[in-house]
Amino acid sequence: MLLISALRIFFGLLFLFIIVVGIFLLYLNINDFNPAAYETLKPTAQAYKQQVPANFRLISWNIGYGGLGKSMDFFYDGGKRVRAGKEQSEEWLHGITAWIAKQADADFLLLQEVDVDAKRTYHQNQMAQIAQVLPKHEYVSAINYQVPFVPVPLREPMGAVKAGMMSFSAYQSLAATRHAYPQIAGWPDRMFLLDRCFIESRFATTDKKELVILNTHNSAFIDDAEKMNFELNSIQEKMLLEYSQGNYVIAGGDWNMNPPAFAPETNFGGHRFVSSSVAFPQEFFPADWTFSFDTKTPSNRFLDEAYNKGITGSTTIDFFVLSPNVQLTNVETIDLNFKDSDHNPVVLEVFLRN
Questions:
Q1: Which residues of the chain have pLDDT under 70?
Q2: Which are the contacts of 47, defined by CB distance < 8 A and separation ≥ 6?
């Protein structure tokens, strides 16, 4: 009788667990963020300049939602921690906004991993805080991570997350669009992961053409090159189409992969190089397209431990791709030693060839 009672209790609890999990998954499925393939974005504020000159400067930076500074390790990347303390997170965000404020003369700024309302960053509206330090720039934003509750790790769930990307400009945009990347994760995983996208921003140039800037954040934690290519095919198609129509095209951001045939130089600034699990295909673009990246300084560090220069792995996954009518003048990764983010900002200077 005792055995029968124990089994009844066990199966009763198991049934209750299955019911609870089923209700939880049903709730997430109903509330799953499911953006359209294309979404028109409206700029907040308005820049005072109208036409982009032939020479300009563009910055891309994954700010790591102000939660992945130098002392942080992260469970998704082999570490143990889920989030930093509130004071530490606020300090890192202050460092990020202070650096951005000093770049007020930049023509364009592309940001990835900016929290709007998330447990991991104590519900700070980082988009609003960053926008305050660039009052002469207009910007558009696109949400790419919106989950009511991320249940991992079980010991300390990440909880609710709402975050996205921002594209700032010192010039009035003609149009801006959110382009959804194809889903490469199956159910139920996709309900807890980012809904990846890239932001298209269009501008008039002084030679009566259009400049098309794409801000991208590609999938992470993927070691399957074929899955990565689903995303790359999407942005490549857009870039080739725009160039065929006579426009200038620049795509930049966090690609989560090394550029083609990447090899560090000059001891990588004293940092330890580790290659990414996948690399950008060597022949993905025609030969006259340009991959623009800095080989002397890493743009990203690994999060399996707090950062220790020369010991913790680092690599380059933040870079730009330029159409043949965009000439590279200079590209430089600014070595901030990953003080406030697990990424360093990358600065690009180009010349538009008529």
A1: 1-3, 6-7, 9-33, 185-192, 221-225
A2: 136, 137, 138, 169, 170, 171, 172, 173
